[in-house]
């Protein structure tokens, strides 16, 4: 028989991303809509262990849909990786009468939820919140679209100065394991080359490409590099290497860094967060557990946690080809 | 036997939208990539009639991927609606040796292309460029994503002042026939009510909703109204009606207007434009004609013009439900 | 003998403007720095009458320096215009043990403070917060610089579409009595004509200018109009008049409206707010009262309230000349 | 007797800054207004030597007032530092019939102009264009205001993520010799500490301040560091030092870098550029030479080049005090 859900908790976990607040708001309001009590947990799993809960109603989340960061804070918890830590967390949830939770985070956060569910048969649901878009089971994670815009706008500014001075810029964007950000930002910013973790084009190809670019009359160039690019050199070494081998270029480096994680979410991310929060809570209500909500073909969908954390979010090969054509 | 395409023309037609320049750039560079000559036509079909062409190579389109508007200008042409006008246009294209064209625009522009294709068996391909997202055969038109962000950012600013003063704002956004912009912007901006052309919720329901909103402790409210909302009153009349019936509110109106058409395109729109340009030119190369390129399930796809112009771009009913839940 | 100030209240009054929160933060933190208790008053003079006070310490104002609007809300109070209302306000302040207040607002708010000071010999200090920059005794009011950027960015977007279509846009910006916003925004946005309350250039001159503009090869034009322009027609009538008399133009209107009041303050406004808050509190501490703090020649300065409210904030005639030259 | 100026050249030199295009536009249009021919010189002094000139009229500069970078490109010229190089430049100017020039740049560019004027008695005028605001004789250089906003907006985003995670961020902003950017950005972004080249507060004071900040209940902190801060350690070493000595903080670094040089200029910078261009050209017309135009007390003013390059642009000590109070 279906156990009725009466109290749902929501929290954010792992690296923060724009849209997390909109996600919290949606979970809280969907609970209110269905007359379910809702609690916010501060600082992710660590706050769960410590019982750092706060009751939230529809008005608790006003004015946050457009705010970056997360009002519930985020943290990584070593203690939750231990059986003892998870037991403490379970006890704290029980003590507060909480029946189920929604975790907004990435791979690691979902793995934690999955284990917790196995150990205590506790209903859990996940919302993918990370700028990297590296999660299987959704075409878009919360914050990804915003991060693309943030990076592209920053590179637009850098290109102003690059083209005033005939310079070559190496610009590092986020994305340690997958090249979604680099590839889309590279195409969006009109980069001459894009280096991603999925492909090793080799340094020779890079030099060739930059030489062709120069020969074709381009006076300045931008190379977008993912943090974890396959060439394996960090962006400063890359810049040095190119400067040594191409005297004709004045080379500069810019690491966009943490600003990509912040900022007011785009309309897309706000709407996505609103949809995901509804789907997460209503899935719990109908008795589902251990799933991640996601966007597939523009429709809300569920993916079992074990698939979400094992699966690979693949790069769009068509887009790599588009990128090659655009840089002619 | 397949006629080889040697010279392709590209132009923008109808209302402009962010991403049109990125689309032009993509068409031009894809032509260059395939060693096809490319011509830009100024001022849409009118410029075609007048032979207002300019040869473009890969470097002609540098520095435009991030610019709003269209470097080729746009216009509506009465003359092209006549058989004589179209004959002139055909002669001008032939004289310049142009084999095929790519039109970036909306419904009306595609109808023109379709008729032109029927009359002269001239290869044509379309890229959907309009902020309204009202075209069948693509989940996203060029400029739509940018317009959503522009509108949401403007409403964020208005909400600052609304909530400082406990005011009720009626904000009109674009979208004469379909409510895509209003619905997404409304959810993204956290609007209390959203009025769209597809639904007549009635004035009573609006008043009820605002009263509940007030009763639930909200001190300020934002109502997003599509230009062509079903209630049929324009936004100023609506505001007057509410002010007369709800003395507790100080009501203000803001019409966002044409700023929604401009601005630097979002990363999404730049990438979409790049993909669409490649698809359009390469479809012409393989002998296709009379199609619109579009995005379906995140994949580039073709839709015959007659379906594109006859079909309806439907509102997402799930999102209407999400909107209702969010405004509790 | 100097009465020692022990408890200072701060509030915002009249129309809100970006930077008000940064001003509140500065007053609160300067009080904390000098070991003075600080109270926030909600909803301006009306909240003062109702005793709607809240004790604030340095941490109460964290995270607000970059937020538009005012966390203390603003309101207009009819009751405070009566002697009885002001007596109630005085009693409420006395009951709470408040010794002095800082009001952030415009002309009307300062007049209220001045009368209150005369009636009850109560120490008061003013910070000019309004986007209109219409206050004597400071070269910049809080929010003015931000509003200029907001308006210019909106017009940049409109110009994208104007120049794609060879259109003429009439754009109304705020500024009922003085043309500071219109003049600066007009120059900053490269407007062809600027209509301000201080000057009646006449409709004939406007038509002449637009005709010259067209003749000189400009394909699109933007005319910036202050709300209270001297020609006296509202922006829609102006547009109709021009369209009737210049068939060659397709005319459009955009009223920027309330979005100009909101948004995250510019760096300039945040710094100005910080400086003004310090000056206001430290002036009260040394026994001054009945002054407005202001920026003169980049230095913090005091102007007696009676001069601030009577004086005129004059338009920069050099800038009118610059505008004429730029539109050649 | 006054030699009549008939042909004026304009160019940008040294590091680029937002507003340079608006400055070029103003010089070109002011020339047109006074019926003086105007030439643009590409790539600064190097282009002058090479005779890389282009005639510009009022329409040549349309649509650039809001663009970052410089359409005339910029460069540093070693050759111009030699007498032979300058002679070549003089010959090229004479050959083109150019009577006078306006240089938009910084200290180094003005020194070049001053020497050139001495050697050839050639009329020269300077417009201060640099984001660093490090030039004597003007309260604001072109681009400074824009760079402040760019940096503050980037730090706002970083703070979102900092406060979600209780992190300490060291953020490096531009300003090698003077701390104007760091000081204003630090106050504007609500930084807990600001390290500038003018002051050596010492590492101990920094640790003390961060400890107090933590003790006072702040969960995250931002330290803004000028490139050339007096402590002398670069921002990465600083971060390491603090992390070693304050285990309670997770420390991160962000170098804002070249994005601060680009972007669309603020309204202030556009207006300033327009005023400076008018003043520069009209000063040449009345026979002045060897001056830099500048803003003093909101009025356009002239400063002899030798004073401009020798003088020091001093930090505002009041603002340092404001900063101390704000971080309580």
Automatic annotation (TrEMBL), chains A, B, C, D:
Gene Ontology MF annotations: 6-phosphofructokinase activity
Superkingdom, taxonomy of origin: Bacteria
UniProt gene name: pfkA
Keyword terms, alphabetized: Allosteric enzyme, ATP-binding, Cytoplasm, Glycolysis, Kinase, Magnesium, Metal-binding, Nucleotide-binding, Transferase
Record's protein name: ATP-dependent 6-phosphofructokinase
Active site: 132
Binding site for Mg(2+): 107
Alphabetized SUPFAM superfamilies for the sequence: Phosphofructokinase
Pfam annotation, one family: PFK
InterPro entries: ATP_PFK, ATP_PFK_prok-type, PFKA_ATP_prok, Phosphofructokinase_CS, Phosphofructokinase_dom, PKF_sf
Organism: Winogradskyella pelagia
Regulation: Allosterically activated by ADP and other diphosphonucleosides, and allosterically inhibited by phosphoenolpyruvate.
Residues that, per the record, bind ATP: 15, 76-77, 106-109
Subcellular location: Cytoplasm
Residues binding ADP, per UniProt: 25-29, 159, 190-192, 218-220
Family in the record: Belongs to the phosphofructokinase type A (PFKA) family. ATP-dependent PFK group I subfamily. Prokaryotic clade 'B1' sub-subfamily.
Oligomeric and partner information: Homotetramer.
Binding-site residues, substrate: 130-132, 167, 174-176, 227, 252, 258-261
Catalysed conversion reaction: beta-D-fructose 6-phosphate + ATP = beta-D-fructose 1,6-bisphosphate + ADP + H(+)
Domain Phosphofructokinase: 7-283
EC number assigned by the record: 2.7.1.11
Function: Catalyzes the phosphorylation of D-fructose 6-phosphate to fructose 1,6-bisphosphate by ATP, the first committing step of glycolysis.
Involved pathway(s): Carbohydrate degradation; glycolysis; D-glyceraldehyde 3-phosphate and glycerone phosphate from D-glucose: step 3/4
